[in-house]
Amino acid sequence: MKSLSKENLIEHYRVLQQAYKGLAKDHAVGNSTPAALSPEDLEKKVAAQSSAVHKGTKKQMKWQPSCKMGRTKWSYTGICPNKEVFLSLFNRKDEKKACKRKKISISDFETAIGSITASVGYLNITGTDVTLGWNQEEGSFILSGTYGI
């Protein structure tokens, strides 16, 4: 560095600055072209995300009087910055048009996450579907539905 002239040092600084900006763009959340995951890594990340959703949803399922009617509401917000993991987890196809909310059937939800029964033992997810919302820019998703007897 001591042997560089002032002009060369400034040029070197500019090159490093541009390289840093390029790295920041490549690692941004919700990037449309992230590095592809190997099938093993994808499977591990999907399993970890599925487990987190299962535990988080089960934790919310507590007895309330509205459980008798099967209309107690639950909602889970998760972080999934990799679009490939999200699409694989919920068995979705990459859609050109972004959708904010989509209903998925209970059977599809249980295939992705597993059957959820609360610690009380007789509380299950009820209704015909679960609402799934995906915010690609933030890398987050929201699941909501009802549970009860």
List the helices and strands and how they pair.
Elements: H1 6-26, H2 39-60, E1 72-79, H3 83-89, E2 101-105, H4 106-113, E3 124-135, E4 140-148
Antiparallel strand pairs: 1-4, 2-3, 3-4
Helix pairs in contact: 2-3
Tell me briefly what this model is.
With 149 residues, the chain is an alpha+beta fold.
Note down, in words, how this protein is organized:
The protein is of the alpha+beta class and 149 residues long. 39% of the residues lie in helices and 23% in strands. Strands 1-4-3-2 form a four-stranded antiparallel sheet. The model has no long low-confidence stretch (mean pLDDT 77).
Strand order of the largest sheet: 1-4-3-2
| Total number of beta strands | 4
Report the helical percentage. 25-40%
Q: H/E element string? A: HHEHEHEE
**β content, as a range?**
15-25%
Please tell me the overall pLDDT: 77
Q: How would a textbook summarize the main sheet?
A: 4 strands, antiparallel
Number of helices: 4
Q: Termini distance?
A: 72 Å
Q: Which spans have pLDDT < 50 for at least 5 consecutive residues?
A: none
Record keyword descriptors for this entry.
single chain, 149 residues, alpha+beta, 4 helices, 39% helix, 23% strand, elongated
